[in-house]
Amino acid sequence: MDQTVWADDQIQGIVRSVLVVEGDKHKQQRKVMNPAFGPTQIRELTEIFVAKSLQLRDIWAAGNANQGGHSRVEVLSWLSRTTLDIIGLAGFNYRFDALNENHEHNELSAAFATVFDAGAKKTMIPVLRAWVPFFRFLRVDRDKETEQSQATMARIGRELLQGSKASINEKSAWKTRDLLSLLVKSNMATDIPAHQRMSEHDVLAQVPTFLVAGHETTSTGTTWALFALTQNTAAQDKLREELLAVDTDTPTMDELNALPYLDMVVREAMRVHAPVPSTTRQATQDDILPFAKPFTDRKGIVHDFIRIRKGQNIQVPIQAINRDMAIWGEDAKVFKPERWEKIPQGASAIPGVWGNMLTFLGGPRACIGYRFSIVEMKALLFTLVRAFEFELAVPPEDVMKKETVVQRPVLASDPRAGSQMPLLIRPVVRA
C-alpha cells in the first residue's frame, strides 16, 4: 500500500512529481534525486541556512532597538520570507531577496506569495499546476492573479532549469551546490542508464518537493517550535544556555547536530506540532492490516485485523500517532523535550524515517527532504534563541491551527487576518 492519494482519483498516475508518482516511476525519480538530498549535500548548504538566519536576527535586532529594547513580531511571515530566501539559494541558486524590504520587485517571489497565500485551500494543486502542465486543465476555482502567478513560476522555472543545464554542459558549474543543479548533474551521471533518466518535465516537476521541504514545512515548523518554547520557559532557558555555550555564530551542520538539547527541542516540536497532520494512502491490492491491540465493536465482536480492498483509501493520522497517549504517556500533548532522554518503548515501533514519529512519514515514500528541513530548522532556532527571549503576545487559547498546505497558526480573535503568530521578543543580555 504505497500509492499516495494527493488529489482527485482522476489525476492519479499522471503527475510527474516524486510527491505523487507511483511504482517504477517513483523508484526511478528517487534514485536520481537521493544524492541531492544526502548528508554531504546538506552539510554544504548549512552555510546558507545560517547566513539567512543571521540576516533575520539582525533585522529583528534593529527593530528592537527602534522600539526601546522589545517589540511585537509576527514571526510566521518573517520565517516564511527567510525560508523562501533559503530555498531560492539552496534550491535553485536564485535570489528572492524576500528579507530585504528595499529590494526591487521580484516577480517570482510575488508569484510564490500568491500561490502560498494564507487563505489558500488545503491542496498543493496551485503549486503543481505551475510546474506540471496537466494540472492547468483541472476545474479548480482560481482568479486572474493566480493564473498569472502560475505562468510566471512556470516560465522562470524553465529558465532556471536551462541555466543549470547550460552551466553543467560548459563544465563551469560542477561545483555548484544548489539542489536543482545537483539533480540535473545526478540525472546526467554515467551510471544512470538512459532509459532511467528523468525527462526535462520530470525534473521541473520536482520543484514543489523543494518548496515543501525547504519553505512551507520549515517556516511553519519553526514557528510552532517558538510557540512551544513560549509555553515552556524552562525549556527555552535551558536551550538558550546550551546554545550560548557554543563559541561561534556560524555553526556547521555537524556542530548543530552535536547539540543534544537543540535536537530534543526540534524532535519534540515536530512531534507535537507536525506541520502536515495527516496523509492518505491507497491500497494497491487486497490485504489484511493487523491491529496492535484487538478491539471490541458495538456488537461485542472482537477484531484483531481489518480487511482492505484494492483501491480503498487509508488515512494516515500523523498527528494522532505522534500524540498517542498509549505511546507517549498521559502528557502526550504536552511539549516536553526531556521525554527524548528516554524514548518510550512503544515509539520504537513507529515506522518513521526520523525521530520515532511519523512527521516525515516512512518507507519508500518518506519525505525526501527531511534532512534539509531539520538542519534548516536547527540553524534558525540556534540563531534566534541565542539572540532573543520569546513570549507569546496573545493568550494561548487565542492560537488555533488552520490546515492549508500545512498547519498554520491563526488567531481565534482575528481569523480574517489570516495566518499569524505574534510574539514579543527581547534581546538576550549576555553576562
From TrEMBL:
Its cofactor is heme. Pathway: Secondary metabolite biosynthesis; terpenoid biosynthesis. Its main location: membrane. GO terms for molecular function: heme binding; iron ion binding; monooxygenase activity; oxidoreductase activity, acting on paired donors, with incorporation or reduction of molecular oxygen. CDD domains: CYP_FUM15-like. This is Cytochrome P450. It holds the Pfam family p450. Keywords: Heme, Iron, Membrane, Metal-binding, Monooxygenase, Oxidoreductase, Transmembrane, Transmembrane helix. Belongs to the cytochrome P450 family. One of its GO terms (cellular component) is membrane. It is found in: Membrane. Coiled coil: none annotated. The keyword Phosphoprotein does not apply. PANTHER family: CYTOCHROME P450, CYTOCHROME P450 12A4, MITOCHONDRIAL-RELATED.
